[in-house]
Amino acid sequence: MIEERASMENRSTLRRAKSYPANKTLDDLRQKVHDLLNDRRAGRLELLRAEWVYDLALLTNDFRRWMQRLDQSFDRSH
């Protein structure tokens, strides 16, 4: 019974993945990749570069959000 209660508490503290907040820069990069995919005249190198820039922006955003959570965990320790 005690183990079940502890297990339920652990499940309730798990965080669900959040969707990305609205971000004009990410939206613009995503739109550029989409436009290049639909443009038959776009070169592969141009599309590859746009996808790379978008992926890098997503990773940077994820790292920024992770650092914010990490900083918040230190603020709660007082």
Summarize the structure.
By secondary structure, this protein is mainly alpha-helical. It is built from three helices and no strands.
User: What is the N-to-C order of secondary-structure elements (H for helix, E for strand)?
Assistant: HHH
- Please tally the β strands and state the result: 0
pLDDT averaged over residues? 79
> What is the overall shape?
elongated
Backbone structural class = mainly alpha
- What does the largest sheet look like? none
Low-confidence stretches: none
Round the Cα radius of gyration to an integer and report it.
Answer: 20 Å
Q: Cα distance, first to last residue?
A: 33 Å
Helix content: over 70%
- Alpha plus pi helix count: 3
Query: What is the beta-strand fraction?
Result: under 5%
Descriptive terms for the model:
78 residues; mainly alpha; 3 helices
Element layout with pairings:
Elements: H1 2-13, H2 24-38, H3 44-75
Structure description:
The chain is mostly helical and about 80 residues long. Helix 2 runs antiparallel to helix 3 (about 45-75). It has a domain at about 25-78. The mean pLDDT is about 80. The chain is built from three helices and no strands.
